[in-house]
Amino acid sequence: MTFKEIQELLKQINKLELAEFKLKDGNFEMAVRTKHYTSTKGMKTMPVTAAPAYNQNIAPPVVNPASEPVAAQPAMAADAPEEKSDNGNYLEVKSPMVGTFYRASSPDKPPFVKVGDVINEGDVVCIVEAMKLFNEIESELSGKIVKVLVEDAQPIEYDQVLFLVDPNA
User: Fold this and answer.
1) Which of 43, 78, 119, 159 could form a disulfide with 123 if both were Cys (CB 3.0 to 4.6 A apart)?
2) pTM for the complete prediction?
3) Domain 77-166 is of which CATH architecture?
4) Strands of 118-119's sheet in order across
């Protein structure tokens, strides 16, 4: 599927006001959730125009790239943070998708969080860019940021640990 075909498909999905759309064509798999999707816990989609380097006029759904299977994803990893056994009682904030990790909304803005910051459930901790869509990742837990495990503008994978959080701070 070409980029132009994907753009046209996204425009049609947006026009029809669908909540969710899945497509499988050979090895290509795509899942789209629009602003009409009601269960977006842990992830909020930002309009593309808010991104510093990109200004494309396409719909703002969340798209899973072809390299990730779509069928077996009943819940996002960030919905259930797990304890990190080799790092004491720290909790992990994991990536709910494949993409590029950004600590701030633009290069001239401060990072959403840094080591030592206290966060609450629902606070935006970073942005993950996937297929030119910038998705705000919200914390599913409260505590103090102990460690940032990913460098800014680094590619990340689904379920990769992004931050360690001390829930007792």
Assistant:
1) 119
2) 0.50
3) Beta Barrel (2.40)
4) 91-94, 161-166, 143-148, 118-119
